[in-house]
Amino acid sequence: MKLAVIPARGGSKRIPRKNIKDFCGQPMIARSIEAARISGCFDCIIVSTDDEEIAAVARAHGADVPFMRPPELSDDHTGTIPVIAHAIKWQQQQGEKPHLICCIYATAPFVAAEDLNRGLEAIELTQADYAFSVTSYPFPIQRAVRITEAGRVEMFAPENFTTRSQDLEEAYHDAGQFYWGQANAWLSGQPIFSGNTVPVILPRHRVQDIDTPEDWTRAEMMFRVMQAPA
């Protein structure tokens, strides 16, 4: 069984109700549900939430909400892995046997069905613990600078000052969209960032974290540009 789990806690503080806030004409979470459905990857798509309003929106857009997430897994400090493990255990208690589980974030409006399929193909081909979306940094991280307490600038790695940008190794970061994982990896708490994880590389123009109102505005602008006729 291939299972999609979309975590959607109700207590967002920086952008209140962001999981169901209107994003370019649809509740944000609806876009993740739609991508999961279109992908054809999943036998079941569930939303893990502690919030009745989010549950109702999720059901209206085609996801299952078979349980309400317990309070101990709904605070600001609970990580993704325990939430997904809880959903897997619930499915197992119902007699199901999910073996590949994909966590899809509810605030990932650029997640695409074809990328979910690429992640599935990668984890099945390599038998890795996880496969997740990454994208490259737009500037070499080896030449990053910090601002000191004195208001001055200093390099994190001053030895790279004279190295040409094109000679530095390219670096990647979590794209914050989806995480395919083996059931035993989720259940055992295996870290996602580990030596037995494979990347699914996304172009930078389809990646945007949404943590602040500024992020939200930028994401809507990006989305509208990508939807505009060529």
UniProtKB/TrEMBL annotation:
Signal peptide start-end: none
Question: What GO molecular functions are on record for this protein?
Answer: N-acylneuraminate cytidylyltransferase activity
User: What superkingdom does the record give?
Assistant: Bacteria
InterPro entries referenced in this protein's UniProt entry, alphabetically:
CMP-NeuNAc_synthase, Cytidylyl_trans, Nucleotide-diphossugar_trans, PseF
For this protein, the record's Gene3D superfamilies field holds: Spore Coat Polysaccharide Biosynthesis Protein SpsA, Chain A (3.90.550.10)
Q: What keywords are annotated for this sequence in UniProt?
A: Nucleotidyltransferase, Transferase
**Know the name of this protein?**
N-acylneuraminate cytidylyltransferase
